[in-house]
Amino acid sequence: MFTNAERALKITLLWACTMALCCLAALAQAAPLAYVVNRQDSNVSVVDVAHNRVVSTIPAGMASPHRITISQDGRRAYLSSIWSTTLTVLDLDKRSLLTRISLNATSNGVALHPHGPLAYADTNTPGGAMIAVIDTSTLQVLRSFASGAQKTQGLALSPDGERLYSLEPQNDPGSARVTVIDPLNSAVLDHIRIGAEPTAIKVHPSGGFVYVLHADSHGNQGSVTVIDTRTHTVSASVAVGRSPSDLAFHPAGSQAYVINQGDSTVAVMDTRKHAVAAWIALGSAPQQVAFNPLGTHAYVSNQGGNTMSIIDTATQQLLETVPVGSSPWGIGVADNAPSPALAALRVASVQAEHASPSGAADTASQQALHTLGSSKRSGVVQSVPVSGVWAGLLLVVSGIATLHHLGRKLLD
Question: Is 275 inside a domain boundary?
């Protein structure tokens, strides 16, 4: 016969296990989604990355969409095109067009402020390059200001939102530069000279470096210019593959994936050493890349094959390709409101990665994120979504372990 204490303990353990299963079910239902911009079809494929299939398409509301920027809460997407003078805003919950924003000039993309209701879009007007400031709560253009360039080819915002970096190819060969801007005061702070033929610009998650891609500036190879944001000087120039078109940083900050359109590869850069550490073969004519919130997988749009490639970042192996629309270009992954614990882990990972001389922190941070965000299903690593449920699940698991320990004491 069970004692009252034993019976109560078994009931409590059963309740805890039930709660844990409920949490896991909630996580499975909230799986993140990838959004692939199909330029020729003028729509966006919605890809369920847990099952690797297209579940819906959303009309882009514009011809030949080029890039996509997704809000931090995963509820809106901003589409831009180098062939259109408007931005379109999609409601990702309803999977429909929300509104159009007129810029009166073509734009290379949108950068969203991390803490406030602001967005920035670079535009090329007859009078020169301009930056449009958008209120994301009203979806209206508040103002525009000149960046001082002849033209612009992309922009990137620092993680704290205090610095904007505008990529400016200029008309004279070899005179390309990055302009450093204080977006709050619409003030140009500095110009940094870089190599020829720049194609894309991104800021490292730590805010310490800016990476600029160059098309075939090393003979038959492209390159990456690394800029120190503290000194506004070039720290390194790294040869990559042919005709690099895009790059994205792993959420831990330890690696950058550079997409090489010309030879259909990914150059995996070690951001601590500023060097290429590995290569991954891709589909035909890859264009852009995005990581899932935990960094367990990377997703690449392949224009030539009308597919999306899925890469396991732990093994750096191509897992699968998913058919999407015609001429896929921009790509983004919705971040399902990461928990404070995960946000803290990301920050700690980035800080540790830059503080570690041995590189041990790089591996530890990536392994921690990968372990936190993956589960095995039919022998294939599947992404576990990020949500507030994580905190509850971790508490339940901790409670189960404590109850088990106490139970053994009572039963001994």
Answer: yes
Nearest to 134 by CA among 153, 167, 112: 112
**CA–CA separation, 3 vs 87, rounded Å?**
68
How distant, in Å, are the alpha carbons of 98, 247, 264, 404, 409 from that of 397?
Answer: 41, 37, 43, 11, 19
pLDDT of residue 171: 62
- CATH number where 227 lies: 2.130.10.10
The whole-model pTM stands at: 0.78
* 259 lies in some domain: yes
d(CA 386, CA 296): 12
The total number of structural domains in the chain stands at 1
pLDDT above 70: residue 275: yes
The reply to whether 381 falls in a domain is no
Residue 195 has pLDDT above 90, yes or no: no
- Compute how many other C-beta atoms are within 10 angstroms of the C-beta atom of residue 406: 13
Q: How far is CA 101 from the centre of its chain?
A: 23
Angle between helices 360-372 and 340-355 (to 10 degrees): 160
Q: How high is the pLDDT of residue 174?
A: 67
The whole domain housing 221 covers 32-333
Q: What is the pLDDT of residues 133-185, one digit of tens each?
A: 999 999 999 999 998 777 888 999 999 999 999 998 876 666 789 999 999 99
